[in-house]
Amino acid sequence: MKINNLTADAPIFLRIDNRKQHDISMRELAHAYTEDTQVKWNGVLGRMELKAENDVKLQQVNVYPDIAGKRIKVKAVLVRTNPQTTQAEITLQVNCAETGKSYEPQTYPAAFPHDTVCIEKEYALGEDMRLWDEFSPTLYTLQASCHTRQGTDRYETTFGMREIGHTDGYLTINGNRIFLRGTLECCIFPLTGTPPTDEAGWEKVFSTAKAWGLNHLRFHSYCPPEAAFKVADRMGFYLQVELPNWSLTVGKDTATNRFLYQEFDRIIAAYGNHPSFCMLSTGNELQPDFQFLNAFVGYMKRQDNRHLYATTTFTFEQGHGTQPEPEDDFFVTQWTDKGWIRGQGVFDAEEPNFNKDYRQAAEGIKVPLISHEIGQYSVYPDMKEIGNYTGTLEPLNLKAIQKDLEKKGLAGKAERYLQASGRFAVQLYKEEIERAMKTPQFSGYQLLGLQDFPGQGTALIGLVNAFWESKKLTDERYFRQFCSPVVPLARFEKATWTTNETFAAQVEIANYYKEDIRGKHILWQLTDKTGYEVGRGKLDAGDVVLTQDISQALSALEAGKKVLLSPRPDKLEGLEGKFLPVFWSPVHFPKQAGTMGILCDPKHPALLHFPTEIHSDWQWWNLVKHSKVLVMDSLPDLQPIIEVTDNFVNNRRLASVFETKYGKGKLIMSSIDLLSTESKQKPEVKQLFYSLTQYMNSADFVPTGTVSKQDLLSFFSKQNKGVEKRTDARSIYEE
Fold first, then answer.
1. Band of residue 621 on the pLDDT scale cut at 50, 70, 90
2. Average per-residue pLDDT in the chain?
3. Where is each Glycoside hydrolase family 2 immunoglobulin-like beta-sandwich domain found (predicted)?
4. Bridge partners of residue 326, in order along the sequence
5. In whole angstroms, what is the distance from residue 38 CA to residue 21 CA?
6. I want to staple 110 with a disulfide (CB 3.0 to 4.6 A). Which of 88, 308, 530, 694 is the partner?
7. What are the residue ranges of helices labelled H in 412-530?
8. Contact predicate 358/334, CB 8 Å
């Protein structure tokens, strides 16, 4: 018997060149090629087989979901190994694992004018099609068969009906907004020194991550084996994979560039059909050639549109990293050109304040924004972990620390050190996560990490150890209170209070579950540590989109939602908000803002919970001083809730708050700043905000006028003015 001119019992050798051939690993830190978290194995991982080929081989079958059309597009690449073969038949068969349904097989002819041909066909799934996401990870199987007279070649692949995208800067799955609750996976497997190629090994990783409330893993500078994708598919995890690249010489070497392009092609060919494979970055903290990286991402998009792509996962390169690159589909960063978006930059520099979020730093980002490697709070080593190292790697670092503690007579304190530092880290991670979830522009965060990182000199920053086992610093149930699809959030101004102060907090709910909470009630209970109940009650769920951003407002209105739009005043065209009426005479002193106080109906249901008369009074000072006055002359149909009296020279129609219909939605626009962090600390601002939102959630909110997109946009400044110049009492005398 002969096999490719070899006898059946002849040995077959696989030769591995494990030398570093490309500059893809700065100081050999990239997790695809490092001894920091694994071993540089002298071999290959996974399955090897010797297979007799048919005269036509199904080399690749790619599945492209079409959610709107309730169908898939199938691209099959066929390679002819026998030049005499000119015809074949392709049969496609789809099965749904969840429902047990087998769809009708479809058969197509295939001709071979060349040795390699690509067949593209559509396959309808119909009205009973089920989508894939974290809540319902429904999987389908496609079996493709290629029949010739010489035999049959088969190819089987799993896929899910999911489309990942971004709308108005927000990350979406199947058109629904999602929020990534993620951590890094850095190829940390101490027993083997290599990532598992069996599904059982990955089930431990993903089941632990899920128990702690996560829905996302980022594979830092490497791509995992097939088994990881299969488990993530079943469990509904969103994965970001990366090319094996952590380099400061990106783009400089032609051979390395070619390798990276080829590696991308291989990753897509091997894993592209997996629904869990959502995002891909060209590597970690890359430098310096972003012209090369943008061109590379452009190539990725043209090759396969089933995933989102990014030039790098953060960068320290000067002139980059503070805003997305032109080709970025998503943006992972520590900061923007407006400030930090992770706690490392602020928690040690500012007094504790739980009103804050990162919305100012996130302003203007037009693609999904994800905070990079948040946390990194070191925890004291757990000496009990030493006994777990029964495989390839030894815990020489932990043994050295233990020996030093024993030498200094501190070994008895190690457990207390662990508990004190670890429980502190839990509180810091809690604030990290909650501040991210309070930021409306965020699409997620990536922890570094839930799991310890044994490399780089020992970075024990996890709440679980290197084996994905809990350190018992807290339990998963507590962690899930702030790391879940639905999280209650409280905003309050400080961490310490005296007994003569009244604690006040604004409660919000971050809801990224598959269902909204409209029409439901929120039950609350406040207890002390002993369980003594201070109070309880019921809140109506807010059915209002709150935003400072006109694009987000328009998108929500077009979807038929209720929107409270309150932009920052410096983004608006209009008159300066003034508390005092015009001085002396607007004729004699024309250089004034020129208004004469507010005008409102105290009985209007929108002001039911805000104490006021028909006129301005002292409680209006902060409100009008942090506002713009909108000129409404060209929009007679709009209904002001809070008007502003103009002076008798101009007699313009002016307003600060109005209501209207827009498309299928309903809108209240406020040029009084109700949503910025600094304004919301004022009790009068909180009260007006409360009164307006209560009105919007009531049956009384039935605006009659209508407004166009052009009308709304006319209120906004064409230029980003930044800090606005304001007049003072002397300004009227200036020439």
1. very high
2. 91
3. 57-162
4. none
5. 19
6. 88
7. 414-438, 476-480
8. no
